[in-house]
Amino acid sequence: MTDRPHLPGAMPNAFQPGKGNLGPDELALVARRQKVLGPAYRLFYETPVHLVRGEGVWLYDPQGQAYLDTYNNVASVGHCHPHVVAATARQAALFASHTRYLHDGVLAYAEKLLSTFPAELSHVMFTCTGSEANDLAFRIAQAHTGGTGFIVTENAYHGVTAAIAAMSPSLGTGVALGPHVRTVAAPDPLRLTGDLGAAFAGAVQGAIDDLLRHGIKPAALIVDTVFSSDGVFTDPAGFLAPAVAAIHAAGGLFIADEVQPGFGRTGGTMWGFQRHAVLPDMVSLGKPMGNGYPVAGLVLQPRVIDAFGSRARYFNTFGGNAVAAATAMAVLDVIEMEGLMENSAKVGAYFRDALLDLSARNPALGPVRAAGLFVGAEIVQNGDAMRPDAVRTAQVVNRLREARVLISATGPRANVLKIRPPMVFSTDNVDYFMDRLETALAP
User: Fold this and answer.
1) Residue 15: pLDDT band by 50, 70, 90 thresholds?
2) Do domains 24-77+340-440 and 82-337 have the same CATH topology?
């Protein structure tokens, strides 16, 4: 298989109707989905998984069979964590309303959340999803800079609103990029030569120049700080700084999308941008913020909201509601009480080393990139890192599913195993995973 870019938006391990080893109950569920949910939804795996319960790092099917979850960073502190569940239920039974009434809960949570950021990032606005948070950042960036141009990486994903889908190339060719959007190559050390930071900043500067050449003033550079949809690019720490300097010099803002890497997952730091010693103008949050409850937000420097706030009111019916705030506070409690940021660093290092050891023994497993419990491992041909193997990657993903290990693939060539388990993952869980991965990699 040649190094041919994977069609963005396609799912190499997706279920194809009429295929898969499904029993009668699951076939009936698929038929019901198709009837009521329509054609745009997708299911993972050649044979979809029917799940009914979750606990910690495990998910269970109707027969009680356990599946190890190495993919779901939504339930970041573990599926159905009792402290989080109790906080949600307690507040839901007491009071649930929006931010137009005075209430301690949202303020207490905002104060605790902001204490995990650099002091300059001292405002937070609440939404329900990461897509909404990035959409709000899009509007604020335009109001603050007077520009409309946005720069993203070539296979980025930032959300599904109309504005943000138009700057999410990973959604595929059926979703057009906006004329105000420019893409740059991801910071892939295999394909960008020389100093990675300088090369990535050079690409960003080229995008800035092209926007200006077309009469478009730059508004912002937005990146997922581990470049997860591009294939997971984590090192060397600090390589983002020159690109951030370039967008600032052009009068634009830097938006750190922490929807996937945030809340301690990268180990050592609470937020992915901190690994690069940069100060974002805005930081978008989502997925793991409520451990499954829909809560998200945008953290920002006060100066960037002035123009937007003077012209527009902001209100989100469910963003920052009392139940969301209580749930999100409980997630922060668990991260702190259980030392999950430190666990991500320790177990992530163990995981990385185990994958590197297997890579040295198995030519199908190529480069491994990791920051804490966010790991990307490439599947390649005959040990050649420049020859990605998307077909075998899909085979590995589906073999792991049959071994009851849940994972998926990412990247423009669909050959990167995307590993981001709940942060309560243990070294025993790593060993369990590695045993099954080695079997799945067999010819």
Assistant:
1) confident
2) no
Q: Residue 52 CB: number of other CB atoms within 10 A?
A: 10
Domain 82-337 fold is: Aspartate Aminotransferase; domain 2 (3.40.640)
Q: Average pLDDT, stretch 91-117?
A: 96
The CB-side HSE value for 180 (13 A sphere, CA atoms) comes to 16
Q: Give every CB contact of residue 299 below 8 A, 6+ residues apart in sequence.
A: 113, 114, 117, 121, 123, 124, 282, 283, 285
Distances (CA, A) of 90 to 84, 85, 185, 335: 10, 9, 47, 20
pLDDT surpassing 60 at residue 98:
yes
Does 20 score more than 90 pLDDT?
no
Cα gap 125→139, rounded to integer Å: 13
pTM value? Answer: 0.94
Residues 46, 398 contacting (CB under 8 angstroms)? yes
Question: Tell me, what's the pLDDT at 355?
Answer: 98
**pLDDT per position as a tens digit, 276-309:** 999 999 999 999 999 999 999 999 999 999 999 9
Report the first-to-last Cα separation within the chain, whole angstroms: 16
Top-tier CATH class for 24-77+340-440: alpha beta
Q: Within 10 A of 280 (CB to CB), how many other CB atoms are there?
A: 31
Q: Render pLDDT for 337-385 as a digit per residue (tens, 0 to 9).
A: 999 999 999 999 999 999 999 999 999 999 999 999 999 999 999 999 9
Residue ranges covered by each domain of the chain: 24-77+340-440, 82-337
